[in-house]
Amino acid sequence: MTTAKSQKTDPGRFFEHFRIGEVIRHATPRTVTTGDVALYTALYGPRFAVQSSDEFARSIGYERSPVDDLLVFHIVFGKTVPDVSLNAVANLGYAEGRFLRPVFPGDTISTVSEVIGLKENSNRKTGVVYVRSTGYNQRDEAVLQYVRWVMVRKADENAAPQGELVPQLRKAVAAEELGAAVPPIRVDGWNDALSGSPYRWGDYEVGERIDHVDGMTVEEAEQQIATRLYQNTAKVHFDGYAARDTRFGKRLIYGGVVISLARALSFNGLGNAFHVAAINGGRHVAPLFSGDTVYAWSEVLDKAVLPGRTDVGALRLRLVATKNRPCADHPYRNGEEMDPSVILDFDYWVVLPR
Questions:
Q1: What whole-number distance in Å separates Cα of residue 225 and Cα of residue 310?
Q2: pLDDT score for 4
Q3: Residue 87: how many CB atoms within 10 A of its CB?
Q4: What does the alpha-carbon distance between residue 324 and residue 176 come to, in Å, rounded to a whole number?
Q5: Which pTM does this prediction carry?
Q6: Which of 45, 162, 215, 282 is 20 to 30 A from 13 (CA-CA)?
Q7: Segment-wise mean pLDDT, segments of 10 residues, the chain, 354 residues
Q8: What does the alpha-carbon distance between residue 287 and residue 183 come to, in Å, rounded to a whole number?
């Protein structure tokens, strides 16, 4: 007697399965809770007052503490992984990220992505997939939108890609687009002693470099908790057994861990930068592994007055994270090459009180 085979599992998409213009509605919606917020704080230690204290947030005009912007980013990102990057080699970069509305505990987030570009690599074993992903709340209001591109394996090296297009992406989000997720705040309610920093928007200058001083060592357990928290099931982060056959021979730390650690470290020097308004670009320059220690420094690339706003202003920052090297000398390039300690080069806008 033979037993009929059942194929109900999903091995994930490979590069040749994507087509330009395809719209993907991702499973499953995720209701954000205060438990998510507490666990995010436990993993990275962010100390920004608006996200830490309901009372502080209410004193400047919020209904309560909004969810950390990068937690929202990771939740939206995690929804896309089973459909976009389950078979990824690496996530390569980000662009045109805009935080459109605050998210509060109790909100339910869902994600939709559109494939906007495809480029097969010359080895014909992999290709790059470009997607624009949008996170929505339970009222179908967009809360976050961003583009990312990821290198994905092919299941069949001889399979032809379903189109080829490298999208033209903006180098930076325009300043006039930055204020949407920040309600008008009461600057007179902002308490520098409670926020942990006396430095507001006007105290920073273009070209200024800030060593954030502190370092955080990443443990394997933290990486696993983080990817599970975001429901990010990418094999390169989850499956240590399969990772033995990769060129590194072990699991990679999820790139979002690096972003969140660097952002948390930036509190020392940018403690009043309470809101991430946009992601202009970013790339994971080199891998991070458990046992490595992350440091960070920032450079002020630009300053912007937001149209119609006298309460807040924006700084465009380059956030550079390194592994196993403190940043007193602001490591970045070593001649023509990126300094070997650099693991993240992240260009983003933040909002501060004026």
A1: 41
A2: 66
A3: 21
A4: 38
A5: 0.92
A6: 282
A7: 70 94 96 96 96 97 96 95 90 94 98 98 95 98 97 94 94 92 93 98 98 95 85 74 76 88 98 97 91 97 94 97 98 90 97 97
A8: 37
C-beta separation of 50 from 56 below 8 A: yes
Q: Hunting for tokens 């509305």 — which residue is that? A: 101
pLDDT of the residue at 302: 98
- Report strand pairing: 293-305 vs 209-211: antiparallel
**Which residue type, as a one-letter code, is found at position 100?**
L
Classified as helix, coil or strand, 209 is strand
Phi, psi of 193 (to 5 degrees): -65, -40
Query: Who contacts 40 (Cβ-Cβ below 8 Å, separation ≥6)?
Result: 46, 68, 71, 229, 260
293 preceded by a cis bond (ω within 30 of 0): no
For residues 122 and 65, give the distance between their C-alpha atoms in angstroms, rounded to a whole number: 48
- pLDDT at site 179: 84
**Among candidate residues 206, 213, 320, the one with its CA nearest the CA of residue 271:** 213
Report whether 263 contacts 257 (CB < 8 A): no
pLDDT at 108: 98
Buried b (16+ CB within 10 A) or exposed e, 148-176: bbbbbbbeeeeeebeeeeeeebeebbebe
Count of residues in the chain: 354
Q: Which of 45, 28, 19 is nearest to 266 (CA)?
A: 45
Token pair recorded at residue 64:
């309560």
User: Could you write out the DSSP letters of every residue in 284-346?
Assistant: E-S---TT-EEEEEEEEEEEEEPTT-SSEEEEEEEEEEEES---TT---EETTEEPTTEEEEE
